[in-house]
Every structure is written in C-alpha cells, then in structure tokens.
Amino acid sequence: MAKTPDRKVVTDEDVKRKAVKLVIVHLKRKIEEDFQGKDSIIDWMEQMEVLLGKEEFVLSEYHQARKDFNGLIERTLDYTIRSKLRDSWFSLGKALDKKVKHR
Which residues contact 96 (CB under 8 A, 6 or more apart)? Predict the structure, then answer.
C-alpha cells in the first residue's frame, strides 16, 4: 500500500494571511493612477509585505496596520481613490476575520 504524503494542517492564521495577501494584490491594481499620497500607500503596502513575510502571525500587528491604513485613507484628498481605498480597508477587516472552513 502506497504511503500518502502528509498534508499540511491549514490554520486560521494561514487563511487570514492568504486573504490579506489577496487584498494587497487587489489594492495594487486600484492605485495604478497617480494621486497625492500614493507614495504613503505604497510604503504601507511594503510594510504589509514585510509583515506577511514573517514566520509568526501576530493578529495585533495586522490590526495596527489596518488602523494605520485608515489614517492614510483619511489623508487622501481624491474622493474616488479614497472610496477605493475604503473598500480595501473593509476587505482587510473581513480578511482578518476569516477562519478555516470545517467540513
């Protein structure tokens, strides 16, 4: 009988990390046009990528990053961009609430 390879157990943190990565990818697409404050958003996304690259998933760090993102959104003057960023902010909150689906 062939031995099946060990499957990795997916944790809530894995699901959250993957969902946050997806939000960042979508956010990158949303900010392709130039606007005042774009550099700050890009810097924040780079910090998020460093956070995502860490081995340990500390939820409080992600909540602080979301809070920082909210501050950046409030300083964005362009209404259209601000509403797109706000959508990403909500999506980030949903991503941090995700849990493993049990069968």
Answer: 16, 19, 20, 59, 62, 63, 66
Task: Supply the pTM of this predicted model.
Answer: 0.85
Q: Where are the domains of the chain?
A: 12-27+36-97
Whether 70 contacts 53, CB under 8 Å: no
Give CA–CA dist 79/94, Å, rounded.
23
45-53 contact pairs (CB < 8 A, 24+): 48/20, 48/24, 49/24, 52/17, 52/20, 52/21, 52/24
Lowest mean pLDDT among 3-7, 13-17, 32-36, 48-52: 3-7
Distance CA 75, CA 57 (A): 28
* Nearest residue to 89 via CA among 69, 72, 61, 63: 69
CB 20 within 8 A of CB 59: no
